[in-house]
Amino acid sequence: MNRFEGISLDCLRSARPVFRGLAFQIESGGALVLTGPNGSGKSSLLRLMAGLLPPAAGSLSWNGQAISDDPDAHRLRLRYLGHLDAVKPALTAAENLAFWAGLMGGDPDTAVAPALDALGIGHLSDLPARFLSAGQKRRLNLARLALAPAAIWLLDEPATALDAETTDRLRALIQRHRDAGGMAVVSTHSDLGLKDADNLDLSGFAARLSVDADTAA
Questions:
Q1: Which of 18, 34, 79, 97 sits CB 3.0–4.6 Å from 112 for a disulfide?
Q2: How many domains does the chain fold into?
Q3: Over the stretch 24-79, which tens digit does the pLDDT of each residue have?
Q4: What pTM was computed for the model?
């Protein structure tokens, strides 16, 4: 049983405090849904979890060991999908995924077609990505998740530009990942309906800054 944990996390963005004293814990098979208004720090927390942004205070650990002790090992155990779609417009949908499969340690010959089918875009395999709609590019980006296993999925608003059918596909993909012992952390403005997921509302931690500021004044 793996455990990913954050304790007393503070976050700064351009020297401005975003949240303070935040804590979370997630174990194998678990899901954590991040909620809160824009600016409450959902994306910043995902970047902290991914090791892309250092916490101003507090600690992040994997099975009790600080992720800063071995950042390369932490990068290998996660998949991080941010707001921007990592799609090369000159490559076909299949070629985009083959590129990512090689980086992730998957087999492009066997992983690409099932990944496209998992998000319902197998019929777009040979279409250059520059011709894809915003929703199709989003699905292609999400298909990276199905290329090779990883312990942690960090997903920033993954359902943006998705229709109801594709959202169902995404939900099923996340559930299969969890059933295999993986973890998922998802920021969202809408309810994805993830089974037995814990919720972390960041608005409370952002509000704590106002209370601390008033106290200091």
A1: 97
A2: 2
A3: 999 999 999 999 888 889 999 999 999 999 999 999 999 999 999 999 999 999 99
A4: 0.91
Q: How deeply is 165 buried, as exposed, middle or buried, from its count of CB atoms within 10 A (0-12, 13-18, 19+)? A: exposed
Structure tokens at 101: 């499969």
Identify whether residues 198 and 145 lie together within a single domain. no
Segments forming the whole domain that contains residue 33: 1-77+150-217
- 97 and 67 inside one domain: no
Question: What CATH number did the domain enclosing 158 receive?
Answer: 3.40.50.300
Using CA atoms in the order 46, 47, 53, 58, what is the torsion angle rounded to 10 degrees? 10
Q: What share of the chain is helix, strand, coil (3-state, %, to 5)?
A: 40, 25, 35
CA dihedral 170, 174, 175, 178 (to 10 degrees): 170
Distance CA 183, CA 161 (A): 24
pLDDT attached to residue 22: 95
Choosing from 92, 121, 149, the residue where a domain stops is 149
| Greater pLDDT, 86 or 94 | 94
Query: Do 183 and 141 share a structural domain?
Result: no
